Amino acid sequence: MADGALLEARSLGKSYGALRVLHNISFDVRRGEVLGVLGPNGAGKTTLFNLVSGDTKTDEGDLFLDGQTLVGQPPYRRCRMGIGRTYQIPRPYVGLTTFENLLVAASFGSGSSEAECYGRCAEILRGCELGGKANRLAGSLTLLDRKRLELARALASGPKLLLLDEIAGGLTDEEGKDLVALIRRIRANGVTIIWIEHVLHALLAVADRMMVLNFGEKIAEGVPDEVIKDPEVRRVYMGIEA
Length: 242
Description:
alpha/beta; six-stranded mixed β-sheet; four-stranded antiparallel β-sheet; 9 helices; globular
């Protein structure tokens, strides 16, 4: 296992018939860091998350979390091993309250009883600025608060690794700043993060390293400033000819 790595991906590949979505993707994520993932639509970013979370089976390669292989493990098991995930479009149970949403996520995600999860859920709600909306139906929340709830639900099982999938999308600049501040606090609490995002300034405000995908292949990886200046990244992602 690579020194300091929490997640290791080795030669990952995924195809749907003749369509190759990911090919030979390898990378490490060190404990406590934020790895940003960039790429145009169709680059394979969400498929990569699906392979890590277990929503999709890998065709090739291997994945390790804390030295344990993830391949063959179902999503619920990966969750209990320490992987939390948000989705591009928040998926709350709209007929349940904000607090009830969190209890469901915490109890099923950790395998604990609801009673055992009460204190942790209350703490997470406060940390995600939802403490005053605990009894509000999730279906009545604003988009920003739904994003916060999506984050809170992903945190409820106590993940080591948090996968954020375009969580800043659709927010105003001020709302995006609030969300970035929340993600910084989550990172400061020791959670390792992989963040797919099209809102580049939000990603640059947090990421330690960045990886860029295009047509299912990794075309760049490194510190954000170097990656953004890479001529191929500028051509593919920003439409800028070097």
